[in-house]
Amino acid sequence: MEHRFERINRLPPYVFSEVNEMKARARAKGLDIIDFGMGNPDSPSPPHVVEKLIEAVKDSRTHRYSTSRGIKGLRRALASYYLRRFGVELDPNEEVIVTLGSKEGLANLASAISAPGDVILVPNPSYPIHPYGFIIAGASVRHVPSGPGFDLMAEIHRAVRESAPSPRALVLNFPNNPTAEVVDLSFYREVVKFAQAHGIFILSDIAYAEIYFDGEPPPSILQVPGAREIAVEFSSLSKTYSMPGWRVGFGAGNRGLIDALARIKSYLDYGAFTPVQVAASAALNGPQDCVERIRLRYRERRDVLIESFASAGWEIPSPRATMFVWAPIPVGMKAMGSLEFSKLLLQEAQVAVSPGIGFGEHGEGYVRLALVENRQRIRQAARNIKLFLAKYQNLTVPPLTRAFGS
Hints:
By secondary structure, this protein is α/β, with parallel strands linked by helices. The chain has two domains: 6-44 and 290-392, Aspartate Aminotransferase, domain 1 (Alpha-Beta Complex), CATH 3.90.1150.10; 47-285, 3-Layer(aba) Sandwich (Aspartate Aminotransferase, domain 2). The chain has 13 helices and twelve strands. The strands form three sheets. The chain has a seven-stranded mixed sheet with strand order 2-8-7-6-5-3-4, with helices on both faces. Strands 9-12-11 form a three-stranded antiparallel sheet. β3, α6 and β4 (140-145) form a beta-alpha-beta unit. α4 packs parallel to α10 and α5 (101-113) packs parallel to α6 (129-137).
């Protein structure tokens, strides 16, 4: 019996799977792969947070169901974070919700506010959940070109003019994954004014707001007067506190959007395990020097990567924020495209990256590198890449990649 699942059929083949399968085969052969592919922090969670988890889990009262909105203590801690970091005062009961990572919050809000036929504006390239959360929900996504070489605000204006029906929501993500671009408050002011005029909700993802290196700390859209009339913002503790496996995120902002998400979540989950939420509260309320150490680690790795790769012959712009580097494919190899380049780089240099096409059509010509290898490993990758470029960069016909073990 053949099964057809229409929503599954709307999802394209997972571009990263080919590279992931090659990595698995290479490791099975005993090869040492230097892996910049996934944004999976490699440093441990802060000790005081782990200790708070252990303390909380020993209390059997925390073993029962939690609450889908999140425990009050964590919602208050999130509101306190917004006040001290952005100067934004939030009602923890009405304007804050705890999610199972920012990804879950974005996906469930997409289901809550969109219906078949709704148009959603999503920058391209983008983190996959930004468009596909809405596609899974049945909405229509209009991709807005963004990244190096594009004026995002001008592209948003054009997308609204050319969309029918009028867009229901706009997704923003700054600092951006994958491009690492940042914006300032003036951009948010302009986009909020425009969205208000056109009756468009804004879903802002600031998961990398605390991983910044140069200039002022990235702002929140909720700092703009009137933003809470139309906007909700998502973030997570995953990168800020090196807590990816804990799956603690949150949404903040517009009461109606938060309430819609809470109603959907009430049908789907009982919230994160209470001891995890207690520990997350300790992360937000406790000493913040761990955040600065994490930020410094990524800055040091960024600097080593940019310098060593340039010495190897691969010039890459230095990102101002995030744990990612958005690298243009070396000029002599652009013709093969980001997927084939990523496969060849893995095959010949044992260096894994994410092909830009996996983030959308406007990601073609780039690859994303996550700063999840230490400095020694980054320098080793540069040495491997130097030999790789010397061998392949000036070929007029791209070579065929082969499967490991074939």
